[in-house]
Each structure stands twice: as C-alpha cells, then as structure tokens.
Design the sequence.
C-alpha cells in the first residue's frame, strides 16, 4: 500500500515562508508605478499655474489650489450651455443606461441559464462569439440604423444602441449557472410563476453580478464622447465627455484639463471601490466552460 | 431534459391533453417545446431584439456593403471582390496599418495577458486584508480611460525637456538632447505600446484575481500529499488547471482589444500621425467611413479585421478547450 510521507509534510510546514513578504514588497513597488499616472492626474489638478511649468518638472505639489477647477467652470461659462447642463445629461443618461442594462441582461440570463428551450445553446454561443465583435467595425450600417429609427438627437441614442452588452449577459449567465436549479424547482412546486421566480429569486441572487456590470460599463457610458459627436446636434443634449473633449489642446489649459480629467475619472474609481467585493464574487464565475 | 418535462410526461396518461403539434415528429416536438417555453423567449426578447438590431444586423449589412461601392448618398453599386483586391494591392496605407496593428497585437496581447495572470497570482499570495488596495492600484489605469489619461501621457512623454521622461533621462545623463517620443517615427509605436501595457490589467485581470480566490484550498492539501508543496508547483499543477475557464475568457477579451487598438494612438500622437507611424486598422477604417465616405471600402476593412479576430479567437477556444 502507499504511504504518505508525513515527515515531508511536517518539514514543509516548519520551513519559514518568506515568499509573501517578498511578493508584497514587489507588488508595492509595481503598484506604485501602476498607479503613478492616476496620482499624477490628481496632483496636477491641484497645481497652481507657476508649478505646472516648472523646469525641471516636479511631481509633487507644494501649494495646492482649486483654481484649476474654478478655471474649468469659468471656461464653460463662455460656452452656449452651462457646465451643469452637461453634467445633468451625463448623470441622467448613465443612471438610465445602467438601470435598463441590468434589467435587460438579468431578464435574459435567467432563461438562458435555467430553461432548456430549443436554441438556448445557440443563443448563448452567439453571445460568446459576440465577445469578439469589434464595436466600431460596423459603424456605417449602425449609423444608418440609428438615424433610420430616428434615435439621433435624443437621449435614447446614448442608451439603446449600447444596451445589449454581450460581456454583461455573459457574466450574468455564468453567475446564474452557479445557482442550483433546486431553488427554482422549489419555487415552482410552491406555485410561483416564471415571472415571480425571476423577480423573487433570480434578481436578489444576481446582486453581485449587477455590481460587476455596473463597474464594467460605467466608464464607457460616463466617458462616451463618440455618441454625442456622431448623433447629437443639439448642444443642450450633449454630455460631459463631449464637452471635456472640446477642451483639449493648448498647454495653457493643462491645469484645467487635468481638473476635467479628474472629474471624469473619480466617479469610475468610486464605483469600483464601493463594489469591489461584489465584483470579485461574480468574476470568480466568469470563465468560459 | 428538465424536470418540468418529466412531471408533465407523468401527468399525460391521467389527463390526455390536446396538443397543437404532433410531438411524434422532430419538427412537431420542437414546435411544442418552443410553445411551452414561450415565457423564456419573452424574457430574452428585449436583449436579443436590441442585440440583433444594433449588433448582428450592422455586421451582416457591413459584410454585404463590403462587396459594393457606396458613398452614403447614392445607392450601393455591386463591386465584387474589388474592395478586397484594392485593400491588399493598391492601398499601401492599409498594409502600414496592418503591420502596425500586428506589431502592437503581438507585443501587447501576450505580455498584457501574462502580466494580468501573474499580477493576479501575486495578489493572491498576499494577506486577504490588503488585497483590495493592490487590486485597485493595478486596475486603476484601466478605470481611468480615454480623455483623462491622454493629458497625463502627453506630459510624461512630451518631446521637449519639460516632459517628465526626457527630464529624468537628461538629468541622469543618458541622453544629450530630448527624445522626440511623440514625433519620431521610431518612437511612436513603442510609446503607444508602453502606454497600452500600463493599462492592460483590465477585465481579464479582475477575472483572474477572482478565479484564484475561488480555487478550492483543499486541493492544495491534496496536492501536497503528492509532493506539490512550493508555490510554483502549486501554480503549475493546481491553479492553472483550475483557472482554465478564466484563462479562456481573458484570452478572448485580450485578443479583441489588442486588434482594435486605435484610440490610444489617436490621443497620444494624434491622427493622422507623423508619417502615419501610429496608423492602425481601426483608424484607417474610421478615415474611410467618417471622412472619405467610401463606405463599401470601409466595410471591407471592417470585415477583414473582424475575420482576423474571429479566427484567432476560435484558435484560442481550440487551445483552451483541449486542455481545460
């Protein structure tokens, strides 16, 4: 018969393990480098003009100021539409988009995962393939379809064309696969309708997956300048990202640009920090099996 | 077959139901099953309708348009394979864009992928409490996309001595005069690649971090019995097989993002770039679609790019499906 080498296991346990310290040290170093541009962005946003153009350039800020943000608002006061209007548009569109995205994706993931209707496998492999689709590749027909449906120059154009997000449906479906079928069977025996099973059982279980979808899509909607450039002709309906894009150019505005960049980035980082633990839970099931 | 079908079959002898379709035949059975699952179809309908109208339909239309001459105003005219022939024979810029894109993809694809995997693995080795901070530090560049980072990179790689990198190199005496990072044709692609690598720990990285966290710790004990005790051996014998699904998911995303490079180039070196040194397929495509309105030709470029990604993506599926 075979024998476990007990001594070997004991020796392995006794050996002092320094590796985590080495790895933590290495990761700290690499993490600082990785986060450096973000830190730089934050620092620059608070630099006064005389520090921005120092030679040799200096990384840190000695006299932090909020003047760059004031400048940003001042620049926007010359434009046709107040800064707050752009901000309002972006917030409105982002909230509506995420709300609808979650409803549409969760509604689709439940039957794809739990109902064996004819074609459910094909439907899902279509989504897996769609992970490889190039979003800009079909720009021409997309433009014709959007204008043909008269979605252009409305808030809807920010939302509807991007609503069917394959990555989100994919993650939600993989997450749903981990939920045992017996929960839904029990619900069925108690006489719940499919709609009730979805709202009462599936939706609460999908909370973490929803958080992941929010993180992955938030930045793309919040920073979506392309839609406003292509489809919106009315300044009143354009969003913050579009406005920030028009600001670019000219070293004289480096400070204001950094302030603008910071305003565009902070919400994404906040959303990530607030929902990181939930995201990890969903991502654990993200694999393609 | 689901349990629901079974219970229904059991009921049948008690109360025979009239059915619309003859369930004996294959077609009839399928139709019957489809009718029985009408609620399922209703639930997936909103997603798939939008998906069809704004994703599938444009792709199909794009494929059809690629065989035509189309300027967006007059009706498309059939062109046969001409657009594709022109692509490889008469358009040196496309070949330039293709070689730039491949150069980028060959470097950023694998390195970004491996970096995602190993940084995720390293993060998994450190104490649970500090994991989130490190995850954020590595994921932050991917979060701060687009507009925000453009400004930062422009200052770091600025061509004159005010650029951070130039200033540091000058200070250290490595160079005598500032390097034209954003203007020299030798430097444009490397700079784009460095920036891309910096922010390459994205969705795939998150997927890896979660995948490692989820590996059953009991497997380590089981492996230890077989003599697998070092971290590295554990990685090879336990963690890589266990994270195979995440490896495939991340590979698919990595391939797609590597081949669709364009936005970074546009932000950092502008478009058109000096001597088209930063031209990529995506930018070439947007030229023909957005500026020249040669929509048939633009579609041919798009179809080529999509085909490339799908073929390489399928290879990844083959590769990982065999081992997983």
Sequence:
């Amino acid at each position: 018969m075979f024998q476990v080498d007990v001594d070997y296991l004991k020796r392995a346990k006794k050996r002092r393990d320094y590796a985590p310290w080495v790895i933590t040290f290495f990761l700290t170093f690499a993490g600082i480098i990785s986060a450096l541009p973000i830190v730089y962005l934050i620092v620059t946003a608070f630099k006064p003009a005389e520090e921005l153009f120092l030679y040799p350039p200096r990384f840190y800020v000695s006299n932090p100021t909020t003047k760059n943000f004031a400048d940003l608002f001042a620049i926007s006061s010359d434009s046709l539409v107040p800064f707050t209007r752009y901000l309002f548009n972006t917030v409105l569109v982002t909230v509506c988009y995420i709300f609808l995205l979650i409803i549409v994706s969760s509604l689709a993931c439940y039957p794809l995962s739990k109902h064996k209707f004819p074609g459910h496998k094909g439907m899902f492999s279509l989504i897996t393939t769609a992970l490889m689709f190039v979003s800009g590749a079909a720009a021409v027909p997309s433009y014709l379809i959007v204008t043909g449906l008269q979605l252009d120059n409305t808030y809807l154009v920010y939302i509807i064309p991007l609503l069917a997000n394959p990555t989100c449906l994919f993650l939600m479906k993989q997450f749903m696969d981990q939920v045992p079928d017996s929960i839904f069977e029990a619900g069925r025996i108690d006489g719940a309708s499919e709609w009730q099973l979805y709202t009462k059982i599936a939706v609460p279980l999908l909370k973490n997956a929803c958080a992941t979808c929010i993180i992955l899509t938030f930045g793309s909607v919040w920073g979506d300048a392309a839609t406003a450039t292509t489809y919106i002709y009315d300044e009143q309906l354009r969003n913050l990202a579009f406005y920030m894009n028009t600001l670019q150019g000219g070293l004289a505005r480096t400070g204001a640009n950094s302030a603008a960049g910071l305003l565009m980035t902070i919400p994404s980082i906040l959303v990530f920090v607030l929902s990181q633990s939930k995201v990890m839970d969903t991502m654990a099931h993200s694999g393609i099996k | 077959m689901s349990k629901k079908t079974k219970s229904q079959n059991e009921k049948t002898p008690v109360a025979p139901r009239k059915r619309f379709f003859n369930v004996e035949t294959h077609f009839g059975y399928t139709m019957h099953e489809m009718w029985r699952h009408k609620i399922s179809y209703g639930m997936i309908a909103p997603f798939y309708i939008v998906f069809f109208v704004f994703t599938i339909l444009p792709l199909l239309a794009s494929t059809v348009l690629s065989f035509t001459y189309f300027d967006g105003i007059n009706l498309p005219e059939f062109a046969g394979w001409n657009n594709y022939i022109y692509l490889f024979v008469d358009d040196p810029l496309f070949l330039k864009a293709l070689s730039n894109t491949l150069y980028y993809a060959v470097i950023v694809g694998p390195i970004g992928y491996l970096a995602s995997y190993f940084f995720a693995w390293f993060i998994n080795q450190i104490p649970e409490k500090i994991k989130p901070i490190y995850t954020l530090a590595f994921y932050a560049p991917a979060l701060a996309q687009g507009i925000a980072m453009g400004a930062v990179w422009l200052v770091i790689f600025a061509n004159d001595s005010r650029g951070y990198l130039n200033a540091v190199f000058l200070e250290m005496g490595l160079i005598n005069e500032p390097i034209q990072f954003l203007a020299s044709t030798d430097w444009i692609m490397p700079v784009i690649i460095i920036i891309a690598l910096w922010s390459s720990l994205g969705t795939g990285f998150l997927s890896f971090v979660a995948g490692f966290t989820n590996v059953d710790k009991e497997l380590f004990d089981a492996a230890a019995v077989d003599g697998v005790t070092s971290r590295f051996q554990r990685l090879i014998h336990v963690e890589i097989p266990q994270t195979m699904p995440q490896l495939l998911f991340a590979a698919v995303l990595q391939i797609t993002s590597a081949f669709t490079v364009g936005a970074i180039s546009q932000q950092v070196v502008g478009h058109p770039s000096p001597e088209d040194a930063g031209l990529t397929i995506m930018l070439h495509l947007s030229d023909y679609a957005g500026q020249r309105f040669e929509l048939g030709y633009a579609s041919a470029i798009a179809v080529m790019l999509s085909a490339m990604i799908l073929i390489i993506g399928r290879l990844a599926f083959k590769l990982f499906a065999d081992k997983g």
Q: What stands out?
A: Chain B touches chain A through 111 residues (CB under 8 Å).
